[in-house]
Design a protein that fits this description.
Strands 1, 2, 3, 4, 5, 6, 7, 8, 9, 10, 11, 12 and 13 form a 13-stranded mixed β-sheet that branches. The chain has a 9-stranded mixed β-sheet with strand order 17-22-23-24-14-15-16-20-21. It is elongated and about 70 Å long. 5% of the residues lie in helices and 48% in strands. By secondary structure, it is mainly β. The longest helix has 10 residues. It contains 2 helices and 24 strands. The protein folds into 2 domains: 171 residues, no CATH class; 138 residues, no CATH class.
């Protein structure tokens, strides 16, 4: 069974990107003069546990971070700054979206709706070397109220006698940890549109039963954009040439389960490893033109947040080869 620990999440969760910081002009902000510490946070991560640990009540692990901290699918480290780690309980929604409202600190471990579990919430600081101050257990929070609105969070907390007022404006980073294997992966980590152009691309295609799994990389080296695309070919076709779309069912959307990723995805690659930006494709189309051992791709898609992913790429095509199998092993998690 998975262990739910906010600090383990900070150190070792299969990783996520970065901040979605945006100003929210329509949110009233309380004046800062009444507080000992005021902070405009750069990052908010909400890990959704469903009601596994609290039957009938949804549970989220919330991390509000002073600064961005870069994480990827293979590992990461915390940046210098302050982290407010909150264990909250909400009405059941089953969609991973935190209900808007006010959550208050509760020390009874009653797992009641609209509460913050004070026994599993804490404040930590990290120095410039990545060390915890004073340690990874953090400092207890004695009073707290968390207000959640659309793309906005506001925390008032008393820590060692000082009142902290923390705000965050922007998209919440979300992690769904309700899948059976406990693998932590998001539908998207994008915070902006993606546009890729390349005439030095590489394409690898494996065709089986009129379904093609295609890996397209921006460059032949170990850096740049990469796409995993699953398309349904015309009956009996041995070429990937054609137009494919989510709308007509010929381009599979991206998803994941306890076994790994499925369907169509975008990733960025950094030094041969899967990097911090990735997204499951949820809408759009792709066209391939295959000419012998070369290929051209035009892609126009969207992720779950509505960010556009566009690519125009040309390069060498490999099919049914050891290279294809090697790349599939590397990128198909």
């Amino acid at each position: 069974m998975r262990t739910k620990n906010l600090f383990y999440l900070l150190l070792a969760l299969p990783l996520i990107l970065v901040s979605c910081h945006k100003n929210s002009d329509d949110v009233d902000k309380t004046p800062a003069s009444n507080y000992d510490v005021t902070l405009e946070a750069e990052y908010l991560l909400a890990e959704y546990w469903g009601d596994e640990f609290s039957p009938g009540v949804d549970n989220y692990s919330i991390i509000i971070a002073e600064n961005k901290f870069s994480m990827d699918l293979g590992g990461g480290s915390l940046s210098e700054g302050s982290y407010y780690c909150l264990d909250i309980y909400t009405p059941v929604t089953e969609d991973g979206k935190i209900p808007a409202g006010t959550y208050n600190l509760d020390m009874s471990e009653g797992f009641a709706e609209w509460t913050i579990d004070g026994t599993n919430s804490s404040y930590i600081e990290v120095d410039s070397n990545g060390n915890f101050i004073p340690d990874e257990e953090g400092i207890a929070i004695s009073e707290a109220a968390l207000v959640i609105k659309d793309n906005y969070a506001e925390l008032t907390a008393v820590i060692e006698g000082k009142t902290h007022f923390v705000t965050f404006s922007g998209k919440f980073a979300r992690v769904d940890s309700t899948n059976e294997g406990g693998d932590v992966i998001r539908e998207t980590t994008l915070i902006d549109d993606v546009e890729v152009e390349s005439d030095t691309a590489m394409f690898i295609a494996v065709i089986e039963d009129d379904v093609a799994l295609i890996i397209a990389t921006e460059n032949v080296d170990d850096n740049g954009a990469a796409f995993i695309l699953q398309v349904t070919l015309a009956d009996g076709s041995d070429s990937i040439s054609g137009n494919y779309s989510v709308a007509d069912g010929t381009l599979s959307t991206g998803s994941y389960d306890s076994e790994g990723i499925l369907g169509s995805w975008y990733f960025n690659i950094v030094d041969g490893d899967l990097g911090y930006a990735y997204a499951a494709i949820q809408d759009g189309s792709v066209a391939f033109v295959q000419e012998g051992e070369s290929c051209h791709m035009t892609l126009n898609c969207n992720d779950a947040e509505g960010y556009t992913i566009k690519a125009t790429m040309s390069g060498m095509l490999f099919t049914e080869s050891s290279a294809a199998q090697a790349m599939l092993t590397k990128f198909c998690l």
